[in-house]
Amino acid sequence: MRSTRRGVLRPLAALLFPPEPEGADGPHGVLPPLLVVLTFVSGLVDAVSYLAMDHVFVANMTGNVAFLGFALAGDRELSVGASLLAFLAFLAGAAAARRLRGGRAAPRMFGPLVAAQAGLVAAALAVTTGGAGRLAVVLLLALGMGLQNAVAYRNAVPDLTTTVVTRTLTGLAVAPWGRASLRRLVSVAALFLGALTGGLLTLHHGPRWTLSVAVVLLLGVAAAAHRHRRPRGGAA
Predict the structure, then answer these.
(1) Is residue 5 part of a domain?
(2) pTM metric for this prediction
(3) For 127-148, what is each residue's pLDDT tens digit?
């Protein structure tokens, strides 16, 4: 019964992390494939923020910090205000995730926090549709990505941080091939495909289509996490 209820998520999780004995879940349950979807979403939202919102990243803070330095150095194609806003909003979103989580186990709060992120991206979609300022969209998306990164950080699933691939690529280059290598390839591919999809949608159809896809995916992840959450007292 339990295996049937889990559908496709459990086999996908087993590809990334070996299942435990006696047919139980792997060490992270069904979270790994859900984190891969969140990685794809990171590519989507960064495509919107970079291509349509003042050349700023809202998910990749490493790049955004560099952009802030370039803007302060005088690059006129970059915005100091937008980069700084994204940076501060990202931190605020991560801090909010900590407060919303309280003392509850990280896996149990995965779904609710992703649902909150979906609400923020939906608000950004509404702002974009209404033709409001770009900074408002940057603010909302960066808040959402702060939530997402806090979720990934607290659940600490190896090689699936949802935004950062520099260390992941390094692991591919220096570590022997194994199950971890597959996870790293999947993580890099998900971010690349998210950016490619977001770029195509944003450039040819506008940011509304890209954000709509992101909202649908986030709601799907939140619903799946709620449906497959582990029982209270189960392994985290």
Answers:
(1) no
(2) 0.88
(3) 998 777 889 999 999 999 999 9
CATH of the domain at 169: 1.20.1250
Contact 83, 139 (CB under 8 A): no
Number of domains in the chain: 1
Mean pLDDT of all residues in 96-111: 74
Q: Is residue 19 part of a domain?
A: no
Domain membership of residue 20 (yes or no) is: no
Is residue 197 assigned to a domain?
Answer: yes
The predicted-structure confidence for 146-157, as pLDDT tens digits, reads as follows: 999 998 988 888
